[in-house]
Each structure stands twice: as C-alpha cells, then as structure tokens.
Amino acid sequence: MAGPPKVSKKTEQTFGLKNKNKSKTVQTYVKSVSNTVNQVHDKKVKQEMAEKEKKRLEKLAQKKREQELKDLFKTIDGKKDEKAEEASTEEGQEGEEVTFDSLEQEMADEAELSIEEIVEKERAKIMDGTPVTYESFTKWKQFKVEQQKKEEERKRKLQMALYEKSGQGLSGRELFKMNEALFVDDEEADETVYEIPEDAIDEDLFLEGDDEEEISEEIDEEYDPSSWKEKQTPKEQLLNYTQSRKYPDAKYEKLPKQNPQENGERISVVIEKPIKKEFMLSKLFPSRKLAEQNASLVALRFLQKYEEKQKEKAATASSSNE
Fold first, then answer.
1. Whole-Å CA distances, 101 to 106, 107, 251
2. What is the mean pLDDT of residues 225-244?
3. Strand pairing partners for 277?
4. Which domains does the chain have, with CATH numbers?
5. Cβ(223)–Cβ(234) under 8 Å?
6. Can you give the pTM of this predicted structure?
7. How far apart are CA 180 and CA 135, in angstroms?
8. Backbone phi, psi, residue 202, to 5°
C-alpha cells in the first residue's frame, strides 16, 4: 500500500525578508540613505561651484590690479585721443576690433614684465616732465631750505610762548638754545684764549644753588597708581615737603598742545624755594591728575637731590675749616 503523496516544498528565496520592504524601519533606512547620497552629491556640486566662483573672483582681482597698475602710469596722449575720436565719428571707416581675448592677452603680457620694466616703459612716455638741470635743482634746494627755516622758526615761537606762559625767565643756556645768533662774539674782542687753573677758583664765592644745573631733572621712575608702593602720592609728599620747610606750595599749570593731534595732558610745576625752578613734562598723560602726580614726582626727586648736595657741601666746608 502506497503511502501519502509527498508535498513538494518550494524553496523560499527571500531568506525571511519577504514583505520587509514595506516595514517602517526599512523605509526609514532607505530614506536616510537616499538623503545621504543626495547631500554628498549636492556638496560636491556646491564645492565645484565655489571653486569656479573663487577662480573667477581671483581672475577679476588680478585684472583689477593690473588695470590699477596701468592707470598709475597712464599718460594723456593728445594725438592718440584725437585719432581715436576721429575714427569713432567717421562713418564707413574701419575701426580697430577689440575683444576680451585681446585684452586678456595684453594684461598677461603686462604681468610678465617686472615692475622696473613697467616703470621705465611708462616713464619713457612722459614727455612734459621738468628736466633736472643745475638751475632747477638749485631752485628746489633753496625751496627746501626755506621750508626748514620756517619750520624751525615755528618751533622756536612755540617754545617762547611756553616760557612766556610759565612766567619764568630764560637762563643763559636756554637762551643760547633758542637763538645762537645772540651770542656772536664782538669783532673787536680779544681772540686770546686764557686758561685758569682749577685750584685758583674760590668755590666760596659762588652762592648756594649754582650747582642746580648738575642735578638731572630726568628720573627713571614713573607714578602708576596700580604699582605705587608708598602710602602717600607724589603730590602729597611734595606738599608735606614744602610745608615742613615753610616754603610756598608748588603751583601747577596746564601746558598748551604743541600740535592739534596731541591727545592727553601736559603739566608744568613751579617751586619757589629753596630755589625757583619749573619742571615742564614733555610726556603726555591721559588725565590731568596723573600728569600732576608725575610732575610732583620729578620736582620732589629734584629737591631731595638738591638737599643732599647742600648737606654734602656743608660737610665739606666744615671739615676744611677744621
């Protein structure tokens, strides 16, 4: 007796993925892959377009630089302009054909030339320049000398105005710096040079304060509120110094600007005793308060050095008397 007929089984070729393409997960994955491919394609297209645009801009910039270089040495040739105008107005006359290719070729030829060659080439076109002769050079040199004299005179007047405003007279050295012509020797003066030995000079004949010129008014330190370590400011110290010795208080005055472009404050300070001295700061400071503090510091250091010199002089005199 024959057994039951065998049922043929058809092999499934989907490997268990039948109808899986309709699932939400598969559709999401397919969509993400498509977007990635499209983005990569768009990125490449954008990159290619950006490179083309960059090359185009670089080419335009190069043409602009070359054109500016040509315009820098451009000269007007009346005859060429006249011929060009006649050619453009006459009918039936063949004109010169100008294309972008020819312009680019001309710019390329210009770019191959060195700067020196371009300068010499354009200089050769200039025919109306003033030739350099002995007369023209002498005239130019005289003009420059007069300009320099005017500038020196302007500076001298400005310095004189500063001294007049301060109300203090000029010393011999300052006057000599202002105008050396005031110290020309008399034509009938004796030209004999006399030498005096140093031991023949009696130092006691000099009054106190004659050695003030030996004391430098320049100091290496500068007042900075953030780094100042002393309890009192320089202005307070100077005030205490003068009051303890019953001297008049120091006077401060704002100095005028030497030129309109200056941005800051410049101060002068005057002390009356033990010697009358004015200290004019050449440096600009952002505020008047800071300028006064630095001017006070210069005056205070000068007075301290002056007092030390007087003590040394007195000690030397007393030891010599003994």
1. 9, 10, 78
2. 88
3. 271
4. 24-74+102-125 (no CATH), 134-183 (no CATH), 228-317 (3.30.160.20)
5. yes
6. 0.35
7. 32
8. -90, 105
